[in-house]
Structure of Arginase:
Amino acid sequence: MRTHHPALTALTVFTGRTADRNERGMAGSLVVGLALARRLGLEPVRIGEPEAPFTGGWREQLAAATPWLQCLSAHYDALLRDGNTPLLTTMGRCASALATLPLVARHRPDAAIVWFDAHGDCNTPSTSSSGYLGGLVLTGAAGRWEADWKDNTGLGGDLDLANVILVGARDLDPAERALIDAGTIALVPAGDDLPERLRRAIAGREVYVHLDCDVLNPGIVPTEYAVDGGLSLDDLSAAAQVLADCGLIGLEIAEFEVGWSGVWADRKRLEGSPDTCSPDALLDALAPLFA
C-alpha cells in the first residue's frame, strides 16, 4: 500500500562550489532547480554563489566550500526541526551532501539513506588514491575519516553507515568494496528485479534519497563521469515507485551538468542534438516522488 506523504514544499537550490572541477555542475543545479520550481509551483530558496573552480586536495576544497555548506546545513537544521518535509534539493556536486546528510541523520536517525551513484563515495583520506572530496562524502558525514575524530568536516558526523544503501554503484575502489563485503554499507546493484531488491533493503524504513545522475547509463543526461552498466530512465522510474511507497524525508539531485562535454559533446553534435540537455526526462522518471 502506498504510504501517504505530504506534498513537497521545501525546494532548495544549492549553487555553491564544492570541489567542482568545472562550472557545469553549479549551473546544472540551477537548471534542475528552476525546472522543479515550474513543475511543482514552488518558490525555491537559493543558497550559494557559483565560483571559479580551482585545483586543490580535499582539505583545500573543503575549506573553500565550508562557508556555503554551513549555510546549507543551518537551512536543513531549521527545515527538519520544524517538520518541513519532504525536502527537495538540487546541488552541483555530491560533496555538498556533507552538509545535508548529518542533519538528516541527526533528526531522523533510523532513516535509510538511499544513495544512487555509479561510485561508492565512501573512501577516506587515507584510502583515496585521488584525494577527491566527492569520493569521501559518506564516510565524512559519518565521522569515519579518522578513528577517534567524530566530526571530521566541521559539518557533523551523525550518519550511521549501516543505514546507507548504495544503488547502482559499480565503479568501486578496494576500500569501498571492503566496506560492502563487510556489511558496513549495503549495495543494491543495477540489474533485474532492482525494485524488489531495493524494497527489501529499505525494509519499511523512511528514506532520504540522493541521486547522482551518473548512476544512469552514459548519454542520458550530461554528467562529469560516464560509467557503463548503469540504470535506464525506466529503471529509475521503477525505483522511484518503490521509494514513493516509503515515508519520504527528502530527495537531493546532484551531478546534472548544464551541457555535454568531451566525447559525449562530439557524439551529440553528430546526432544533431543540442549542446545543452533539458532535465525534463529525468524529472519525469522521478515523478512518483512528487505525487
About this structure: The longest helix spans residues 58-81. The longest strand covers residues 248-254. Strands lie at 10-14, 45-47, 87-91, 112-116, 164-167, 186-188, 207-212, 248-254. Residues 13 and 33 are 6 Å apart (CA to CA).
